[in-house]
Amino acid sequence: MASDLFVGYRCSVCGKKYPPIDLMYTCPEDGGNLDVILDLEKNAKRPVDELIISKDHSLWRYLPLLPVDDPGGVATPLRAAGWTPLFKSQPLAESLGLNYFWIKDESRNPTASFKDRASAILVARAQQINAEVIVTASTGNAGAALAGMAAAVGQKAVIFAPRTAPPAKVAQLLIYGSKVILVDANYDAAVGLAIQSAHDFGWYCRNTGYNPFTVEGKKTAAFEIWEFLLTEQEAQLGPAAQLLHDKPLSIFVSVGDGNIISGIHKGFKDLHALGLINQMPRLFGIQSEKSAAIANAFKKGTEVIEPVSATTRADSISVNMPADGLRALRAATETGGAYITVPDEAILQEIKTLGKVGIFAEPAGSASLAGLRVALTEGRIAKDDPVLIINTGSGLKDVSAAMDASGDAPVIHPTLDAVKSVLPSLNI
Ligand SMILES: *Cc1c(COP(=O)(O)O)cnc(C)c1O
Ligand SMILES: [Zn+2]
Fold first, then answer.
1. pLDDT in tens, 261-306
2. Within 10 A of 110 (CB to CB), how many other CB atoms are there?
3. Does residue 330 sit within a domain?
4. DSSP 381-414
5. Which of 1, 66, 142, 281 is the most exposed, fewest CB within 10 Å of its CB?
6. At what angle do helices 363-377 and 344-355 cross, to 10 degrees?
């Protein structure tokens, strides 16, 4: 059983260890985020093909490296989370001046964002500990992911989201049949309410970062990236073969609470502990200038993260006080990466750039590309560095941002003359 791997918790602030009890969130001493401790020794001597269930085309292929039991069931959306495509997008690589460039498209998850990875693991965990109701705070995607994954197996879910969440995300929550409560305040207020409700009503709290298992779901993206590079290596598809041994991969991902980047870091740390990689990738966290709590600390060179007043258009990364800030900061500092801030205008602009290679991103998804462009300008990335950006969520999640980025289509009378008259403005 995969849950045998799970042997305890360790505080990321004070290092104190705790036994693997069912209900444990942050460190009782200092509120630090808890790492799930895995007994990877057990697996260190096993061949790779025993660590991966390769016929399973979802994140459940990594069950031998996950701290939960198989949630059972066949062909449900819960079993379809993860295993998202990696695109090469040659024209974009060329326009960026990069020789090795990939885009991992997380919009292809069952509820159309990266958050499905965490929610899938949390629903499995809830079933294992017999939790009747799962609750989460969400800017929209974490809630949609929980609602969708919970609906897939008939688990009850309660979602607190800011009233200002994009309508498409709220619609998703409602359609998946979870109990939705919109808070007339920001995401941070929803976070507090979810924690209090979990405590008072005996619900299981999925809050990002607060629940130690969210990282364990998100780490599966790192496993997929590693497996992809390994496949390139085996197929000897050129210089990508040397990537894990030669130049480190640089990964760009947007950051709000900091749980995705912490999860990716954890995934590569697990692979390192298993002796499967020699070198960690460099992790670059991208924040909007208007929601830059972790980037501010990075720039000051301190581990003290001060809250901001977030106002970015990229709602998925709009966070005053990140729930997983310290680990997210260390994901960059410990891997030779960096934090980079980008203006909202650049984020909207890159929605268009990604669209032109067939990828429809929400603002938080295109922020990674905006960050990469800054890193190139600042000389942090050279043209032979292998680079991967992550589109964390679908553009359908926030259609109004997409429309602002794209501009309007002309409306004409139904005549060929009218078509002729608009052709110049379309630059065909
Ligand atoms: C949640 C989310 C992020 C940021 O993840 P954090 O763990 O909060 O840093 C980025 N993009 C999308 C689309 C998200 O839903
Ligand atoms: Zn502690």
1. 999 999 999 999 998 998 999 999 999 999 999 999 999 999 999 9
2. 21
3. yes
4. S-TTSEEEEEE-BBGGG-HHHHHHHH-PPP---S
5. 1
6. 100
User: Please, is 48 exposed, middle or buried when counting C-beta atoms within 10 Å of its C-beta (0-12, 13-18, 19+)?
Assistant: exposed
Does residue 158 belong to any structural domain of this protein?
Answer: no
Alpha-carbon gap, residue 351 to 299, rounded angstroms: 26
Distance CA 210, CA 342 (A): 27
> Is position 33 within any domain?
no
Pocket test for ligand 1, best of 104, 146, 254, 368 (most atoms within 8 A of CB): 254
- Does pLDDT of 245 surpass 80? no
Nearest ligand for residue 112 CA: 1
CA of 46 to the centre of ligand 1 (A): 33
**10 membership: H or E segment, kind and range:** strand 6-11
Instruction: List, for residues 331-350, the tens digit of each pLDDT value.
Output: 999 999 999 999 999 999 99
The whole domain housing 239 covers 77-110+215-406
Which residues, in sequence order, are bridge partners of residue 162?
183
Ligand 1 surroundings by CB, under 6 angstroms = 113-115, 141, 208, 254-260, 316-317, 362, 364-365, 392-393
Q: How high does pLDDT run on average in the chain?
A: 94
Residue 9 forms part of a structural domain: no
Instruction: State yes or no: pLDDT of 325 exceeds 90.
Output: yes
Atom of ligand 1 nearest to the CA of 323: 8
CATH of the domain at 279: 3.40.50.1100
**Run of H or E residues at 228:** helix 220-234
d(CA 390, CA 107): 10
User: What CA–CA distance (Å, rounded) separates 214 from 212?
Assistant: 6
Total domain count, the chain: 1
Identity of the residue numbered 170: V
Nearest to 67 by CA among 9, 12, 106, 151: 9
For ligand 1, atom 13: residue with the closest CA: 393
User: Which atom of ligand 1 lies nearest, measured to the CA of 254?
Assistant: 10
Burial class (CB in 10 A: 0-12, 13-18, 19+), 1: exposed
* CB-count burial class (<10 Å; 0-12, 13-18, 19+) for 410: exposed
243: tokens are 């990537």
179-183 and 100-105 beta bridge pairing: unpaired
